[in-house]
Amino acid sequence: MYVKATFFIFLFAIICFQSLAQREFKMPDGDTTYVMKRYVFMLLNEGPNRTHDSVMVSKIQEGHMKHLNEMAQTGKMVIAGPFDKGGKHRGILIFDVDSISQAIRMESNDPAILSGRLEMDAIYWWAAKGSKLP
Fold first, then answer.
1. Which residue(s) pair with 93 in the sheet?
2. CA-CA-CA-CA dihedral for 31, 34, 35, 40, to nearest 10
3. Global pTM?
4. Which residues neighbour 7 within 8 Å (Cβ) at sequence distance 6 or greater?
């Protein structure tokens, strides 16, 4: 059993390294083959400028939500949401785009980013293609 598990971990690692330039690859697991797809996972954190008055915060939030809705309509941002009691971590965005730089360019026009209320941190994230929340 240990040898089989080690083999599959090794196989998964090789496939991942070979597929870094690709956004999708197939990963066999017994009778099932998963198609893995690379997304961009973006963490939105508190930014350095949190001194806005309540009127400005409301205006920034309204613009932030409008921006997120516009990105969702393009189909390139597939999930977005805030954290409950996330502390400095305010929310996540998941993009179905070719690169981190493309996701950053899209989110850099967000009023919450422009105002300094939020900052972005993005990394690549692999998930089974077609994954969805229940």
1. 42, 80
2. -170
3. 0.79
4. none
